[in-house]
Amino acid sequence: MAVKKFVVGCFDDEAVLFPAVKSVRKAGYKMHDVYTPFPIHGLDHAMGLRETSLHTAGFIYGIAGTTTALSCISWIFVKDWPWNIGGKPHFALPAWIPITFELTVLFAAVGMVLTFCYLCQMAPFVKKHHFHPRATDDLFVMAIECTDKTNEADVIKFLKSNGAIDVNVQQAETGWWLGRYDKEQKLFEGKSETAIV
Fold this sequence. Notes:
By secondary structure, the protein is an alpha+beta fold. It has helices at residues 14-27, 43-47, 54-80, 93-119, 152-161, 191-196; strands at residues 3-11, 30-35, 126-127, 140-145, 166-173, 177-178. The chain is elongated.
């Protein structure tokens, strides 16, 4: 995984954060992410992020659940083990609606949760770099990725002029790895490399 350099700015108020995010976008800096202690309405739009496609995934999972339920029930009751129950037809669709509905909801709910965890890279023993320990407590943290053309001193000055209370430069891995926060071992890291760290 690549180690990149980031300029990290901390803000103590969301009213200061919003104009700063817009200024950073307008200045053309490459914003890595903004970490907040609680969801902020409209921040994704201010950052220029596209709308999530999680609802589309939920629809696809729901259709998969409906198809699975109808396919299994119709194969069982029509082809594999047809019963004559009071002379009713083998393909009794109204009787299958409850289980079809339940399987549709099950597939959609479980699929959306797993998709959300995958997109947010959340799972047991998945470790990511934290830019500031108070990012989940009471600070709003903005990480700007440094490229070859980025002058770090200018970015630090720019963030301070936009209301950042603390600005620093960090080197971090952009991806995620398996591990625990009390150990420094990274994914695919050998024992010799672990001993050096």
